[in-house]
Amino acid sequence: MTQHPSPTPPDDVPLVTLAVDRAIATVTLDSPRNRNALSARLRSELSEALAEAVADDGVRGIVITGTGPVFCAGADLKEVGATLQGTPAEPAPELPEIFEQIMGAPKPVIAVLNGAARAGGIGLVAAADIALAPKSATFAFTEVRIGVVPAIISVPVSARMHSRQLSRYFLTGELFDASAAAKAGLLTQAVPDRDMAHAVDAVLQGLRGSAPRALSRTKELLGELGAGALAAPERRREAFTRMGELSAEFFSGEDAAEGRAAFFEKRSPRWAQ
Q: How far are the Cα atoms of 47, 192, 265 from residue 77, in angstroms, in the given order?
């Protein structure tokens, strides 16, 4: 899932904003023109905002949300295609670094979805400690449908989702709703749209009423007790390295080129039956 062509905002217009209120830092993906796709510039600004929130001693918890109808569309396919054709890539943190910032942060991170999430955008959801989404939100791991593998996001996602649903949605690329996402373990809660503000406030009030050092140690404890890739940072680093190599292999392949072309030309890829 990516975006319709539209002008890129000037460099002085941020794609990610940071605001702090009563011990909660809210990091907002603000690139609705391309459905908050994970471009190099957005990744850089997201990484900087996360680092600033973590370094702020007055911050108790971090919310990640977005503007527009989509939380995050995943990779910026136009940028990926341009890079593979030789256009120099803007220096920026890659997704493993972003995910590690969230998963390894000493403060709770809450994903508050404003809409749909796709592919790499679901990685942000899975990396967060708590994830709330309106019931109208939809999800899909679209990688296989454009000829690539959901490799890097498999590290945080596999630590959240139950294996049967993970297999189904990774292998089919089909759409699923927020209620299904909650049942699969991806979301903490699927909330009626009209009740989102109340549900988010309940979580944030809990964080505001908790001792900062206790919160930090409890998050660390959850990692120690958790399964899979969340259990140990060194295992995450190794997994991200291997998955990055696999991702690069497929993104540079012929199927991925066909998948991108089919997406932008609004047609079925040649392998579709």
A: 20, 32, 13
Residues 206/60, Cβ–Cβ less than 8 Å: no
Q: What is the token pair recorded at 12?
A: 């002085």
Q: Which bin fits 36, alpha (ψ -120 to 50), beta or left (φ > 0)?
A: left
- Provide the strand spans (E) within the chain: 16-21, 24-29, 61-66, 70-72, 109-112, 116-118, 130-134, 138-140, 176-177, 189-191
Residue that has been written with the tokens 């991108």 in this structure: 260
pLDDT tens digits for range 152-179: 999 999 999 999 999 999 999 999 999 9
The burial class, CB within 10 Å (0-12 / 13-18 / 19+), for 212 is: middle
What is the C-alpha separation between 66 and 70, in angstroms, rounded? Answer: 7
Average pLDDT over the chain reads 89
| H or E element in which residue 247 lies | helix 233-251
Question: How many CA within 13 A on the CB side of residue 111?
Answer: 28
Torsion of CA 227, 232, 233, 235, to 10 degrees: -80
Q: How far apart are CA 122 and CA 1, in angstroms?
A: 11
Neighbours of 199 (CB within 10 A): 18
User: 3-class DSSP state for residue 192?
Assistant: coil
Residues labelled as active-site residues: 143
Tokens linked to 201? 């406030």
Distances (CA, A) of 116 to 65, 137, 235, 248, 256: 11, 5, 30, 25, 23
The pLDDT tens digits of the residues spanning 114-136 come to: 999 999 999 999 999 999 999 99
pTM of the model: 0.86
Q: Angle at CA 120, nearest 5°, toward 131 and 246?
A: 130
Residue 218 token pair: 């409890």
